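Hi R.,

As promised on Friday, here is the backbone we talked about, encoded as structure tokens. Could you run it through your design pipeline when you get a chance and send me back a sequence?
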């Protein structure tokens, strides 16, 4: 489905690095034809959450890079924004039994929150949270839905010791990397204050996940294909995540 982000982003990076306008032209060509194709084939409504979320994660970078493309007209930007709106709204609407599970739910919640923070010009962003939809996903404005789903999924998938409900260090890492680092990088790039964008409840839950990942230093039994061998292999990842989150969490233990 969404198999072209790397194609048009690579062309755009090539243009920025070389100044060759052929790269800029093809970046716009691939981008606009891809989004137009989504609407013709109704591909967005058929996308699964992981593919949809990956596309939403990529959009802020696409907008930033394409704004420097000499072939991006107002009409082409309008098409890009329509694609952003449609994929983001689909992420809000498609909550189902799949999203009530671990990585699908956190991916969806993060995607909705990223769109809410990045595109405040859409009126739907600030609409209130309403009951409806499947399970406890809720519906309504993007920001309210994103905040609710982040808190709901992080709490639902967290054991008291900070480990992920799938009993997997790699899934704990996935949650932190998706909800923590990816979201915080967007907030930082927008020049926003994370504590004004993310609730204290979500920050506290992320802190528990991070504390668990930092303290895993013993061998862990293999569980399916999720986790094998030495848990300490993840401490380097924990440190990388720590450097992104520590200033926001302001935990004395992390500082030590």
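Update: got your reply. Pasting your designed sequence below so it's all in one thread:
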């Amino acid at each position: 489905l969404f198999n072209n982000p790397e194609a048009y982003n690579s062309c755009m990076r090539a243009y920025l690095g070389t100044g060759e306008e052929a790269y800029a032209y093809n970046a716009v060509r691939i981008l606009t034809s891809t989004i137009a194709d989504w609407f013709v084939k109704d591909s967005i409504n058929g996308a699964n959450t992981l593919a949809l979320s990956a596309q939403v994660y990529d959009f802020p970078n696409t907008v930033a890079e394409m704004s420097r493309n000499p072939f991006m007209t107002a009409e082409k930007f309008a098409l890009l924004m329509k694609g952003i709106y449609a994929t983001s709204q689909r992420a809000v609407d498609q909550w189902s039994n799949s999203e009530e599970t671990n990585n699908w739910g956190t991916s969806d919640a993060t995607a909705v929150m990223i769109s809410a923070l990045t595109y405040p010009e859409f009126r739907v962003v600030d609409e209130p949270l309403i009951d409806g939809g499947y399970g406890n996903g809720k519906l309504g404005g993007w920001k309210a839905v994103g905040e609710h789903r982040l808190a709901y999924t992080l709490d639902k998938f967290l054991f008291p010791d900070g480990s992920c409900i799938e009993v997997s260090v790699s899934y704990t890492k996935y949650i932190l990397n998706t909800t923590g680092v990816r979201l915080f990088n967007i907030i930082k790039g927008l020049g926003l204050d994370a504590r004004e964008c993310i609730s204290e409840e979500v920050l506290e839950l992320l802190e528990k996940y991070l504390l668990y990942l930092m303290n895993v230093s013993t061998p862990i039994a293999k569980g399916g294909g999720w986790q094998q061998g030495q848990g300490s292999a993840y401490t380097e990842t924990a440190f990388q995540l720590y450097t992104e989150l520590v200033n926001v969490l302001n935990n004395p233990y992390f500082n030590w």
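One thing I noticed while checking it: The beta strands are 129-130, 139-140.

Thanks again,
M.
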